[in-house]
């Protein structure tokens, strides 16, 4: 875990040795399960460490993350970025949501094995869970590395964020065109794109952007639209 520990030290993020052991065990277990269930296309440990771990924790030194107490990870997949963030921040409360039940059961089991106590898991679609009272606008921060257009992703994620909270979207490439094309949709959902930055870590090849979207007003009750609609008919 040298890449991970180097990155944490460069970001001035504190960690304990037992946390690094959890990272190691979780990676080994995911790769073992991956031989039976498709959890990740990244199967080489060094690449896994960089693209799943370092990339996930890159927001740990951001004030929006540091001040958040309740965090939701939408479309968590094999547990990223939620699991790495939860390992490093046992004082914060996390909810990981994914639409594939088999995947949710696996990461829930693996999280229990490494002793995570600050994570809850839900199987379901964001379009449905975002209309449930116990989840809607209940979170200080939403994070997502899900592969979707920003307008679509914002419709999934912003309804979970309380007014005054934030949505952090992990995106590949420059994302400039996507940001411009999605501004109207983000505003309609109650958000405002405040930052579009490339995390700079000397010695690390991370071609990613983090889009920081503030939640300025409540999301209209009709959003998100019914399951499947946001992806088929993105807001413009």
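Q: What amino acid sequence fits the structure above?
A:
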């Amino acid at each position: 875990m040298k890449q991970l520990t180097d990155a944490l030290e460069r970001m001035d993020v504190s960690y304990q040795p037992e946390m690094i052991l959890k990272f190691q065990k979780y990676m080994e277990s995911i790769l073992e399960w991956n031989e039976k269930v498709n959890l990740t296309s990244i199967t080489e440990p060094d690449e896994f460490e960089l693209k799943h771990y370092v990339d996930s924790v890159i927001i740990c030194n951001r004030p929006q993350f540091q001040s958040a107490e309740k965090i939701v990870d939408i479309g968590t997949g094999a547990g990223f970025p939620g699991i790495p963030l939860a390992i490093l921040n046992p004082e914060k409360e996390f909810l990981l949501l994914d639409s594939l039940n088999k995947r949710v059961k696996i990461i829930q089991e693996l999280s229990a094995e490494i002793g995570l106590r600050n994570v809850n898991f839900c199987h379901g679609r964001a379009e449905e869970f975002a209309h449930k009272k116990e989840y809607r606008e209940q979170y200080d921060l939403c994070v997502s590395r899900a592969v979707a257009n920003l307008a679509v992703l914002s419709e999934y994620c912003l309804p979970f964020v309380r007014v005054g909270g934030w949505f952090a979207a992990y995106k590949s490439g420059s994302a400039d065109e996507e940001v411009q094309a999605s501004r109207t949709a983000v505003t309609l959902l109650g958000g405002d794109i405040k930052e579009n930055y490339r995390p700079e870590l000397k010695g690390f090849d991370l071609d990613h952007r983090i889009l920081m979207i503030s939640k300025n007003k409540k999301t209209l009750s009709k959003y998100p639209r019914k399951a499947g609609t946001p992806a088929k008919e993105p807001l413009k």
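Q: And what stands out in the fold?
A: The radius of gyration is 17 Å.
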